Structures are given as C-alpha cells and as structure tokens.
Amino acid sequence: MEEFPCLCQACAGQTPREVASLGSPERERILSRHNLQACFSELKRIREAIRKGRLWDLLEHRAYTHPALKRCLNRIADHSKELERYTPVIKPHGIFYFGNLSAKRPEIQRYKWRLAGVRPARKTVVLLLPGRWRRPYREDPRYRSIVSRFQDEKRVQIIFYSIPFGPVPLELDETYPVAQTESLDSKDPTEYRAKAELVAEFIRRLEPRLILLSKEGDYGGAVGKEILKLIPKPKLLSTPGERLKPDSFIRLVEKRIERLRIAD
What we know:
Elements: H1 16-20, H2 24-51, H3 55-63, H4 67-77, H5 80-85, E1 95-97, H6 106-116, E2 125-130, H7 144-150, E3 156-162, E4 166-169, E5 181-183, H8 189-206, E6 210-215, H9 217-230, E7 236-240, H10 246-263
Parallel strand pairs: 1-5, 2-3, 2-6, 6-7
Antiparallel strand pairs: 3-4
Helix pairs in contact: 2-3, 3-4, 8-9
C-alpha cells in the first residue's frame, strides 16, 4: 500500500511506509485509533441510513464488498416477511432495484403479496405492455397514446410487465413504490423467467378473452413463453414491441374488440 485511502485523524498526514517504520507500540496506537474511528463512522452511516429509510440500500451496497457480507444479506433476506412489518408503506424517496437480491427487499415483497390478494376484473381483453425506463409507465412515449385510448374502455385491461415488480396493472402504475423505483435490467435470463412467471400467473387469474402482447426483448419473449404454459395459444397475439407503431396497434385492438362484441 502506497497511501491510506482513509481520511481519519489517525491516518491523516502519514503514509503506510512511515507508519510501518514506527515502533510496535506506536503502530498499534495508530491502528487502534483508526479502527475505533472507522467503527464509529460506520455506526453513524448506519443510523443515518435508518433515519432516511435507506438501510437496505446500504446493506446491498456493502454486500458486494465481501462474500461473507453477501451471505449475511442472503440470510437477512430470508426474513423479508418480518422486515416488511416494520418497513413504512410510503417513503419520501424511491427505491433502487439492481437485480435478484433487490427483489427480496421488503417493499417489493410487499407489492407481490398484496397483488396476490387483488381481485381483478375478468373476461376482458388484456393489453400487455412493457414497463420500460419511463415512470409512471403510462408516460412512456411509445405507449402513451395506446394507454390514453383504452384506459377508460371497460372491455380492456392494461397491464405492464416490469423488471422490478413483474405485473403492474394500470391502476397501480402511479402508486408507491412502482412509480418511484430506479431499476437496472441485469439481462439475467433467470430473472426474466422468474418475473415472467409472476406476470403469467396474474394474467391467468384474469381469465382473459384475448391477450395482446407487445413483446420487447428477451424479457418480452420470456413473458410470452410463460403465458402459453397457462393459457391456450389462440388467446395470445404477440407483436414486436421494438417496431410497434401506436396507431397500428390501436387499430388492431379496436378490430379485435369489435369481433368479440359481434361474437357476443
């Protein structure tokens, strides 16, 4: 080590080489002062994270500095249900989502558990759209006009499939923490499959008459595959989301709705 990364009083103004040249008692005194100040600094950081509702963010950040800390957070995550009881329903800030470990944080677990208790309308046409970078998802420039056209249509339900939360009904799109989550697409096929399973199960509960899926990327592909495991293929119509033209998609949905109306 050529220089100390620490700015504590014990390390300031000295180099590792200078400290190494000191006698044993003096080296121990400097190291003891450094360790004590480092511990107090970390305790202050933890208390501040608790005050700001950022403790999980700090834990996740620390977890990737050493395998033992990662194992520790994995153990903590096994108790998500207990943690959720003491996690505020609403916070003055959003949350961060980095991948599979973030999926275990209390806010996201709470969303999943509560969504399982929702009794959605059934026998409708489901528009399954990707929840992309823009939040709320309804404000995505690619899908804004589609949402505007069908959000008040009784025969239609709009569901977004998102990386952090899986299925997000339009009615929950602006609620906490959905609209306040900064997320990262880790490109992990395992994560795609896990979230797609949540989406497919939620869609199954809707007993849809028809599903129109805007399929974007590998995640969109995983969603389509999981839906076909639970719902007959004739009920699923997929379109490539990357090349989607909103006006054409709107006309397609309108035609399908009219066919179902005539069939009734």
